[in-house]
Specification:
By secondary structure, the chain is of the alpha+beta class. The protein has helices at 6-21, 27-36, 45-55, 58-63, 66-69, 77-100, 107-118, 155-164, 185-200, 220-226; strands spanning 125-131, 137-145, 169-175, 204-211, 217-219. It is built from ten helices and five strands; from the N terminus they run αααααααββαβαββα. A hairpin with a 5-residue loop joins β4 and β5 (217-219).
Amino acid sequence: MIKSDPLFHAGHRERLKEKLLDNKLTSYEKLELLLTYAIPRRDVRPVARTLLKRFRSVYCVLNATIEDLETVPGVGRNTALLIHLVHELMMISYREQMEDGDVLVDPGIIKEYCRKMLIGKTVEEFHVLYLDTKFRLIQDEMHSRGTVDESAAYPREICRRAHLLNAYAVILAHNHPQSDNSFSEPDVALTQVIRDELAKINVAYIDHYLVASTGIVHTLSETMMLYKSSFSQE
């Protein structure tokens, strides 16, 4: 058995920090450096490799649940909490941007927010983002939580919440936890019903975001444009 060399590990960690300052760290090395703050006096490279093998990417590692992280050999409670904390801080930063400014100015912010919110979920969730007259986020609510391949949505309940929150517009979002597929025909039909019900109370429907199991984010507007559907925003 090869003995661990604490002096080597100390030097290696310092080299990682220097590379970070020089903007030369790879994604893998950034994950490795993060782990050093939770796992002292130990070679964390095997842990980083195991995490990437299990979750496939740094992105999915950061979005994994505490419970799933703790199943990885070498990842204790403190390490899982640190990784989860990074994810939570990212969510806060995106939410603050959406609360402080017009979310439609940069649709990429909404995509990333939905991706981080829904990637890695084991069942379908249906979320509604309620916006004010300046298209700032008032509230993000999980409307329903379903099964691995289905979640319910209730148009009248969405309208009721929009009215109570004095929302001017809404954005819909849900996930496909076990599928890379884009919107299904029932997804499109349901969206149209929600849009029409919202129109009756003068609340605008903006778009519907779908997060696939791979982390790809589809929007219904782009999907309908691609397939030249008759589904319109009018």
